[in-house]
């Protein structure tokens, strides 16, 4: 589908669509399916399947003959070689892989590659679309249901699968594979729940659902970390397109591949571009995508629970529907759900409306509230005028967050948020310190700790590993919520600046780091892009410091409010002093006790002590005062004390300014258990 400008001719069987008597016609197509020859391991090729009159495979309905195209069918091949063994995994948009199809593919591979690819290391898997060709089986039952053994179906399937393997074989190069997993709700239901309930209760109690909701993703990258492909498994039937459909269609699984490939290969036609997204079937036997469940077509009421039939019309009238308005809409919805879950990507940074609401620990000043999932026309209008409207792509990516500030699209005078983020793990003995560049919520942190622990222990080198999260490390990126928390859009979700899949992206990266540590392959990790070090356009909004002034007939450090002669323990006293706010490499405050034996003063507290408080008040006419408080602890020994204040002031001397040190000292006072002392 993409091999520079070179073209060649291929022959397609039986076109136009519905005329078995018409001769074959010649069309021109690009020579190499998905052929960026620099990208290894993955490729797509278009099987030259007949699109007219053949019987579709899956529903065993002789009336379901093809009469056009809804979507194309593709073969996607992945070759993985760890230096010791090579394996091939192919996911093809067909109902299933027949034994005959596999044998013919293996024979073709034997002719080309000898024993390199054989039944020992080649897996062919069908997506289970029920709207692809039949006729590629050699056993009687299947030949009856698909009108025989049809070479016009078999040959393009074999050619397409082999060609996808050819392209992958020619483009193998070093790369990395990353694993991710998650759960996808609202896209499947058990179509035989009564049967499921017959399984042992203690076995069923181990699982939350009566279908598997897990989505497993393998992401393929080159050594520079650039994504070149993805392979995912999710258990659901590809039957959103029902038995009334007569168009060739890859159904919901194929639509998920289409969406992700279009997303990654921007500006390319379907089937073109270098990124390949393979979605494969899993344990889908009793799993339906028709989430509204089975309904009687003639009444709209639910079908009989046990035998899936209707009072009038029997089983023919019982058909599952949903979630869309029709089968095309349902295919789109389910495919999009699968694609969205498998796509681990982040958005350009943006802050939501609830960010401005603040938290219960400190609310905002304006009329924003937490939990906002809709924008405010007033504030959005002001934003659009002053800063510009967020792009449609960013708004869609951040859903359901209503964007207040689209910081990832704001670059004047400098970018408003980082777009290169550091991730790091260090190990200290059996403790793994995960440096997180932001504020993780409770559940986000739990998921991250568990993910890192699993990877570290997977190779057996780490046992009883303790994983700790060091938050707000290396670079600040606001908050990191779970996908579920993000949907609520409280302050933390609105401040998850990279969108709803931020946590998934971090899990992906930290798993990779932990795996490299466990496998002792840290030296092979790429450093990644370096963050910018801006030299220009940095700005300071604080006014430049001016010279300092003091009242007439006074000096900096003069005590304006002196201490009392005596204080009891557990009391607070205050000293007010003429002050300035400059201090260099020293303390503003000391509390000192007199040592009668040596007649010296010993410092017992500074402004770093819990017991002291230094309050600086900037006054008018460039004058300042300082208040010093000592909260006398019960443990303070009886004796004589004094408070000292240190600072610096700025003054003019001719045309230059100078910084001069000053200090002030309180009167001596006593601390005792009572006011009565000798």
From TrEMBL:
Coiled coil: none annotated. Residues 511-671 form the Neutral/alkaline non-lysosomal ceramidase C-terminal domain. It comes from the Eukaryota. It catalyses: an N-acylsphing-4-enine + H2O = sphing-4-enine + a fatty acid. Residues 183-203 are annotated as: Disordered. Its EC number is 3.5.1.23. Keywords: Hydrolase, Lipid metabolism, Metal-binding, Sphingolipid metabolism, Zinc. Signal peptide: none annotated. Zn(2+) binds at residues 128, 237, 439, 479. Residues 50-343 form the Neutral/alkaline non-lysosomal ceramidase N-terminal domain. Pfam families: Ceramidase_alk, Ceramidse_alk_C. Belongs to the neutral ceramidase family. Gene3D superfamilies: Neutral/alkaline non-lysosomal ceramidase, C-terminal domain. Binds 1 zinc ion per subunit. GO terms for cellular component: extracellular region; membrane. GO terms for molecular function: metal ion binding; N-acylsphingosine amidohydrolase activity. The active site is at residue 288. GO terms for biological process: ceramide catabolic process; long-chain fatty acid biosynthetic process; sphingosine biosynthetic process. This is Neutral ceramidase.
